[in-house]
Amino acid sequence: MKVLVSLAALLLVGAVALNRPYRKVMHNVDPEAKCLDGSPAAIYLSEGDPNHILMYFEGGGSCGSNSLSNTIENCYQRSKIHLGSSIYFPQENSFEGILSNDPNRNIFSNWTKAVFMYCDGAFHQGNSKDAIRYKDTQLYFRGGVNTRAHLKYLDNTFKFSEAKKVVLTGSSAGGIATFAWADYVQTLLGKDTEYYPVADSSIFLTPSQPLSPSLFHPYVGSEATQNLLSISNKDEDVPLKACAAAVKKEDQFSCLGMYTAHKYL
Fold first, then answer.
1. What's the whole-number average pLDDT of the chain?
2. Is this prediction's pTM over 0.70?
């Protein structure tokens, strides 16, 4: 019986070790990096091989809507949950798929991995220096500030600019952030770094529509995103600079849809 109990204990310890949790990091590299509710932006970090770094943008929709007033209300509601506030982030977290630390399940298990938590509501991009006063709170739109602060922290800590291999990825809204930031991240890397941006589940087709900008889901190709960027990007263009330079300021929302963005990647 003692042998069986000991064996079971060893198996349990081994299983926990294989999928060790990520720890929350509020690095405060830039005090202006904030979630919608003003709480500090954060990442989850799993330290591994510093020469192999995977960065993942968390997904989770956006707070854009069909009118400016509805957009602000959506962002307000979002600020009360984990998609708009870091106060709801636990100290440790576990992830699966390419973020798993189990070597039996993931070829990236021994890489250094960072999850950029999505709490700005505007695709991990944008910057409006002045908060919006609404109801009982102030709403902050600092997605671009957050992302640059996370990248700086990783470079300060692991010198990711000198890494052998870097993967930038994310799903859904995080996939949009991936292709929006792909060129910027490349400018931070050394010439010998192998760099792989992988945008997952981020095109949002609407098959019933003809082949036109309307082919893309209203999520990223319509009035909703235009309304959102009118408040999230007052002091900063979208991060895909080639696209931002080619279109009018009021049309930069289209740079977050692959129908337009693919021309500038």
1. 89
2. yes
